Amino acid sequence: MTRASVALAVAATLIGGTMLAAADVVTYAASGSAASADADARTRALDTAFASAVTEAVADLAGKAARAKAAEVDREITPLLIHAERRAREHARVAQVLTGAIPIAARRAYARARTSDVTTLEGKLDALSSYGRSSEASRLVVMLARIAPSAATSSGD
């Protein structure tokens, strides 16, 4: 098990660009963990810790009203996840047809999304971001294949 900790400092900036006082800076400490078998366990643990600290900071800044709407936001993200996964698979298929292989970056991002803990809001956001990265990697290879077919085939793996 790989563990990581991160401290997030949030500064409340004042309109007009005035200097910040020490009382305007708030820190949030959080920790994250990931399985040691993951290829990027340290990065994943840091991502988890950072997401947790950011979630806590946003909740504090937005107040109790935001906490009440958290369930509603959570329900709205689920259809986005389904759509993002479908699009990632479609883009990977096009890349495979044009180049003969799915880009490794797309495979890794897709695998990360599939293994994200989608029972939490942070996990859902992580999965959504990973599906987006998977699509981007596949679309990049498709663009390269259309511009220079021999270059895309050699860099697609």
Can you offer a commentary on this structure?
The protein is an alpha+beta fold and 157 residues long. It folds into two domains: 1-67, no CATH class; 69-157. It contains six helices and two strands. Strands 1-2 form a two-stranded antiparallel sheet. Helix 3 runs parallel beside helix 5.
Cα gyration radius (Å):
19 Å
**Looking at the structure, what is the overall shape?**
elongated
Instruction: Output the helix-strand order.
Output: EEHHHHHH
- Rounded mean pLDDT is 76
Strand order of the largest sheet: 1-2
For the sheet with most strands, the description reads: 2 strands, antiparallel
Give the N-to-C terminal Cα separation: 29 Å
Strand content: 5-15%
Indicate the percent of residues in helices.
55-70%
Give the low-pLDDT segments.
Answer: 6-17
User: Class by helix and strand content?
Assistant: alpha+beta
Count of helices?
6
- State the domain count: 2
For the secondary structure, the number of strands is: 2
What order do the helices and strands come in, and which of them pair?
Blueprint: E1 2-11, E2 25-34, H1 41-62, H2 64-68, H3 70-99, H4 104-115, H5 121-147, H6 149-155
Antiparallel strand pairs: 1-2
Helix pairs in contact: 3-5, 4-5, 5-6
